[in-house]
Amino acid sequence: MANLKRKNHFLPECYQRGFADSSGRVWVKFADKQVPVHRNPRSVGKRSSLYIRKQNGTEDDKVEDFFNKAVETPFAALSQKIKEEQNRFSNITGPELGALCRFVASQTVRTLAHKQCIEQQAGGPVDTSTFVRVMLRKMMAILDDWLKSLPDVQFYTSLPHVGEQFITGDNPVVVIQMNDNTIWVPTSTPELKIADLSQILKDPTRRFWVPLSPYVGVSMMSHGDGNPHLPPHAMDPQFVRFLNGLVRGQSSIFRLARDKASLA
Hints:
The radius of gyration is 18 Å and the shape is globular. The protein contains 7 helices and 13 strands.
């Protein structure tokens, strides 16, 4: 059992490479440090034995294998394609769309932030096997919902405004639920909270938003036509900053970007 894969990335290397600069490194600002550091994705966003579960008294790394084969390897090629084509990204195949759905669904629940949510709801620490069981159940619930009702997949770009780039972090998937009131107000303050997944999936207004590269992000809306909207729609710089703010707000361990200035 000494050969178990214990270096488990909760923020996959293949995803981080979408934000890497020409040197293959990313800029990372950790919550306990004042100055961003230049890092290899291999050293960022990992936790020892995070997905090592115990079955019948024996540890195994099958979940890490599952993420590698079913999620990360298929997504890696798509991520590189999006990084290279940027706002010229105009075609996505069926298998690539499936890889994207699996990536978003898994990244919603495989983070340390989700583990903390489970522990808060449980009233105390939970063991790894419990976390893995809940994580996989919720991932499959999201994918099953998308199979029953195809999502509306909308791509966005921050280009041509090169001064504004998408950032990411240790908890990059922003789940947005609209809360429209009968009384109109000119501004709305986002509320960060723990929400029940079953209630989220029942909400026709919800969307899963995640940045895919410094210049391209994607929104998965409920009850769509299943057809991806390409090429990416140009996003107002103010809204880019708004979404970056949401990522900052829920990423408690670190924030990550292609350049140092985006983390200021």
